[in-house]
Amino acid sequence: MKHCLRLLLFLLGLASTAHAVTQFDLHRDTFAFSNDTMWQYGVDEQGVLHISHRDKPVEFAHRCFVLSRAVIQFHQFARFEPKQPRLSREEYRQRIKEVCRIAVWADGPKEKIVIPGYPDLHAFSVAYEGLLKDNLGNWLPSYLRLGNWRMIMGHLRVGQASAAQWLAESIDRGQLRAIYLARFPHMNHVVVVYAVRREAQGNMTFTVYDPNYPNQSSWVFYRASERSFEYEPRWYFPGGRVNVMRVFISPLH
User: In this structure, which of 59, 165, 206, 252 has its CB flanked by the most CB atoms within 10 Å?
Assistant: First the structure.
């Protein structure tokens, strides 16, 4: 019931103020394909998560870090020019790798990297799905990140309150942010936050791009009274409290 109420408020827009990253459109500026999971997930009618082996291995998995990072990189460092002539497959491969080599927290090139022949990332990913999957980056480094150990630890409530403030201020400044959501041992996932709706009593609803759900937004809710986050029910997560961690930020911060 609590999750249904949250979803209703989110859809009806009953909050007082809302801000979103300008010029970011979920249906244009994200990938047409999705990340998948190596295991089979399912949530039953009682809201219990079940995990099992897949009958057939998936071809594109472990990429929530990769897709979230790349969405931010293309938004910050690339520019699509649909009226310019299209390039060869090899030339597009070089442009993809050029974009993905730039650290998310970097200033980037003086001139954005041009992706000609397509209006946006979504259209480009429809035409060159395989090329993008092969060149966005390897999934293994994201699994070997030293910071991943944090998902098994307790998280101070003051740290979660600080993360909520950081996210809201980032959106106000027009910055996309990636966050690592964890509910050990059954869920750890990365999403991209692109909008915030401030509600009564200090609560906030963050709208996110979920790499497992192409072209469909989801929400992460911050409950100020408990200084905690809740994540929307997904096919891989029954919904409820999660811990939020910052990723793709400068190591100097």
Answer: 206
The dihedral sign for the CA sequence 33, 37, 39, 45: negative
CA distance 160 to 155: 7
Residue 12 located in a structural domain: yes
B/e letters for 218-229, b = 16+ CB within 10 Å, e = fewer, are bbbbbbeeebbb
Query: What's the domain count of the chain?
Result: 1
Q: How far apart are CA 188 and CA 182, in angstroms?
A: 4
Task: Return the SS3 of 247.
Answer: strand
Distance CA 97, CA 34 (A): 19
Backbone angles phi, psi at 242, to 5 degrees: -135, 160
Strands in 34-117 per DSSP E? 40-43, 49-52, 78-81, 113-116
Tens of pLDDT along 34-82?
987 655 666 666 666 655 556 677 777 789 999 999 999 999 999 999 9
In a domain, 253, yes or no: no
Kindly report the backbone phi and psi dihedral angles of residue 143, in degrees, each rounded to the nearest multiple of 5, phi listed first. Answer: -80, -20
Tell me which of 89-93, 100-104, 151-155 is least confident: 151-155
Q: Which range is least confidently modeled, 23-37, 89-103, 130-144?
A: 130-144
CB-based burial, 122-131: b 16+ in 10 Å, e otherwise: bbbbeebeeb
Residue 79 lies in a domain: yes
Q: Note whether residue 154 is domain-resident.
A: yes
Give residue 42's domain range. 2-247
